[in-house]
Specification:
Pfam family, one: Con-6
Shape: elongated
Largest sheet: none
Distance between the termini: 85 Å
GO cellular component, one term: cytoplasm
Radius of gyration: 26 Å
Oligomer: single chain
């Protein structure tokens, strides 16, 4: 038997595989699938790890090359998050409405000011920032 085969069947490998199986039983399968697919498409991941991820996806009955777009929406996770965000938005629209709007406006203006000073920002973006800041100055007078 070659040395690589002995390594493959070593007790630590068996324990690792058992732990991986247990982890997949308790974790959200959609997130596990997403992580495995991410591993396959990550250029810094080794070929061996990519092959292992493909094998795990096949074991889970998932085509590793299938492109998915927000499959988790069917499980309600997206909708639940959307409802929470909407409820939060409605709560903040009460008595703190003016203060929050003012804070948001200050942050927005600060972002435009930062754009003007950022050496990595395009000329067009800086011109747009100048225009927005000038319009704000006119409207606040």
């Amino acid at each position: 038997m070659s040395e690589s085969c002995e390594w493959f069947h070593s007790p630590s490998t068996v324990l690792r595989d058992e732990q991986t199986a247990k982890d997949h039983e308790t974790k959200n399968p959609e997130r596990v699938i997403a992580g495995l697919k991410a591993s396959i498409h990550n250029p810094t991941v080794s070929t061996e790890a990519k092959n292992h991820a493909r094998a795990r996806l096949h074991e889970m009955g998932v085509d590793p090359d299938e492109v998915t777009t927000h499959e988790h929406a069917a499980s309600g996770h997206s909708e639940k998050g959307k409802v929470v965000m909407e409820e939060s938005h409605h709560r903040t629209r009460g008595e703190h409405h003016h203060a929050e709007d003012e804070t948001e406006e200050h942050r927005m203006l600060g972002g435009y000011k930062a754009t003007l000073k950022n050496p990595h920002t395009s000329k067009e973006a800086k011109e747009h920032a100048k225009k927005v800041l000038a319009e704000h100055e006119k409207s606040s007078d």
